[in-house]
Amino acid sequence: MKHIKILGTGCAKCKQTEAIVKDVIAQLGIDATVEKVEDIQKIMEYNVLTTPVLVIDEQIKVKGRVPLAEEVKTLLQ
Amino acid sequence: MATKTAVEICPSTTQGRVNAGALLVDVRERDEVAQLAFDVPNIVNIPLSEFEEHYQELPKDKELVMVCRGGGRSLKATYYLMNMGYENVVNMQHGMVRWVQRRVSYKR
Questions:
Q1: What is the pTM of this model?
Q2: 3-class SS of residue B107
Q3: Is the confidence at residue B32, as pLDDT, over 60?
């Protein structure tokens, strides 16, 4: 089971990232939880200045941009 | 990290702090600053996109007031500095937008 977090204060890019991640999970049929973290103080626990941030199993994988679906696939496989 | 909540202050309090020697740190990008700048004596501009490379240039022995357009980016920068061991750092809420509304000094 993968634990995925998307860090972002609610901007369009963060929502786009969430949609891509959920789409990839559905395509791959993997077991994963997706949590959207919008609280600035919780986001800053990862000490990141630019969002969106994709965190997989507590590791920062992508920050400051919307990841490509292919990239998310590779990261999740 | 970031277990403490950042202190946030309003533009008038900010002006008082700057007059008392605090350093204003504007994290807006350079093109934004070129359009409209804070007109205070103690100010530096470190765009958020370059912040990780340059934050160490900021003094630890001075009070820092972080500012941006609306107060969101500067709040991130405030927490970032707190995480990096800066103890005397606060955020100005609502940024340049409120600063202009309150007619505090700025220049075009």
A1: 0.88
A2: strand
A3: yes
